[in-house]
């Protein structure tokens, strides 16, 4: 039920969707007795879209998430395992086209290749089924397995978890799959913006991990900010960040993370 509710809420609360819904509501109300209110709402929706698309808002919301967990030092001790979260491929398009289609977070897949070659004895685990609300005949795990095979990654000791639909299930199913022992060091590879929520969920599941953030979307500060050439980039960044902030609150309120804003 939580999974279904979260998907519906995400659709309705996505910032650009919210602005469009406000504008559409205004148009509808303009044909009723609330005409004055209806005429004002589309203007407000356009103003909101302009702020989201051409102001520093997206960066200001995203940077604290990406800065929360810095990457480990280059000379860190060798890990016992490497966990890679899904969200890096389009499993449905990959299946229908019969070729691997990478998503924007493709570094979630490329970084572990280098890590596995640097730490060949570390166990490598990919976790991700499908996040489609109605399910899918294809899984991220199956697509990633094909991608890593095509780029020549040794598949001998790689494990794939293909049932999880969200990060909470990633943590629970991966824990049950690998059964980590006390004192083991496991790296968690996911997007930097997704890392605070992910670490909190894994901790709550009794699986302590070491953050290995990838897929950065900001420069880390606003010193080089300029008005973007394409509003769509700001929309995408803001939607990603808003998704994580709302997710942090929802997962904390439902007891799925150990803190509202998990820290190192």
UniProtKB/TrEMBL annotation:
<dbReference type="InterPro" id="IPR014729">
    <property type="entry name" value="Rossmann-like_a/b/a_fold"/>
</dbReference>
<feature type="transmembrane region" description="Helical">
    <location>
        <begin position="44"/>
        <end position="65"/>
    </location>
</feature>
<feature type="transmembrane region" description="Helical">
    <location>
        <begin position="12"/>
        <end position="32"/>
    </location>
</feature>
<feature type="domain" description="DUF218">
    <location>
        <begin position="80"/>
        <end position="247"/>
    </location>
</feature>
<dbReference type="Pfam" id="PF02698">
    <property type="entry name" value="DUF218"/>
</dbReference>
<keyword id="KW-0812">Transmembrane</keyword>
<dbReference type="InterPro" id="IPR051599">
    <property type="entry name" value="Cell_Envelope_Assoc"/>
</dbReference>
<keyword id="KW-1133">Transmembrane helix</keyword>
<keyword id="KW-0472">Membrane</keyword>
<protein>
    <submittedName>
        <fullName>Membrane protein</fullName>
    </submittedName>
</protein>
<dbReference type="InterPro" id="IPR003848">
    <property type="entry name" value="DUF218"/>
</dbReference>
